[in-house]
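Regression test attached.
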Amino acid sequence: MISKNKLKELAAYRQQKRCDEEAVFVVEGPKMAAEAMASGFAVKVLCATEEWRAESGERRAESGEFYEVSQAELERLSNMRTPNQVWMLVERPDNSSLITHHSSLVLALDRIQDPGNMGTIMRTADWYGIRHIVCSQDTVSCYNPKVVQASMGAIFRTRVDYVDLPQWLAGCGMPVYGATLDGEPITELSSRNTEPSVLLIGNEGRGISAEALAAVTRPVTIPNRGGTAESLNASVAAAILIDRLIG
Amino acid sequence: MISKNKLKELAAYRQQKRCDEEAVFVVEGPKMAAEAMASGFAVKVLCATEEWRAESGERRAESGEFYEVSQAELERLSNMRTPNQVWMLVERPDNSSLITHHSSLVLALDRIQDPGNMGTIMRTADWYGIRHIVCSQDTVSCYNPKVVQASMGAIFRTRVDYVDLPQWLAGCGMPVYGATLDGEPITELSSRNTEPSVLLIGNEGRGISAEALAAVTRPVTIPNRGGTAESLNASVAAAILIDRLIG
């Protein structure tokens, strides 16, 4: 059972601003909830339907508040069109305390705007073992609910930093691959990249900003075989480049 | 100007069923509208704001009805959250009359459900020069408005057939690549595929159906380098496989 007041209080977290202020994020659905509980991230609040409790066998988070809710109550909390059994509020980790896992490739995102693209890029990075993503300040928040859901759990396994990107790139001390229109065809790279490097992905419509582009030391291009399409989706381009570099 | 009755009549095309019955589809936004008009597809109705006429310089479709509409009227017609200057109703082509453009790879889609994925796959295929996509009957319609928009114009350049997929695959006479969990690592394929082949992509959550899987002659796998992620997004997996096969 949940009181009307508590429900109202929690429904306020549908506003991203509220989540930002309290350094929490919303996680939904049984699959993501299971990942959250296994991740070691602190679960502050867990709301779930009776159905979830029956199926998951009383798998409550160890700490935090727990409320059983009806489907209608879940709908008041949820950001999704069809809320699915569980809604939880999870604490954001303190990045400065996180050990940066080393992977051969660091992803740098310049002004990615679409939450679906951002989440999908995180999911792809996770598949390839990339543990560190560095973003320009105006890239969509990785704690946006749509990003969290599209990441399919990568949010719990990836360090994401928001920085002054041109400055970070200039000082990172690694070669920087960046997708441009007239770079080396990615299909002609001799072999898998093994030295620590950065792959820079630009904005959906406008590509890499001039300031960030200045730091690109290895411009690469995905050849346009068809000759008719104008561009690739940003998360698709990122995936093809990641695969060619470290797949 | 548009009459109230006409607006009501056209707003009915927000229902996919209505579009299906009349073999038309909705195209929105100046970029897609320009592609539609350049495509040779028949434009039945074009509704646009004054802004569009000013910017595009009276670029009406040669045939079909034209109505100038207000932003509020455009919102009544549109499937989009932020309608953008133009809405049009375009006739679906008769596939049986289309010449199948030859490309070295035919895409086969087994039960792709998400319109964003479907459109993104079409867009990626277009980039790689793939002109023919064959879908199982229960794959999302390529004329779904979200598919059309996500295809970024590929809808005007791609033949899409809906067929009994297992039967089509069994009779196609080409090798069939299919993404499975224990296929040959795609990274170890010796070189670009040049013989006519089929690449089969499965459903987002459930993969390739048992019936379609029986027709796969070349099972391939995208190696899971990270070891933590459970899967890749379907449109991302399709892109990586297409790139490895014909990129």
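Expected vs. actual: identical. Chain B has a mean pLDDT of 92.
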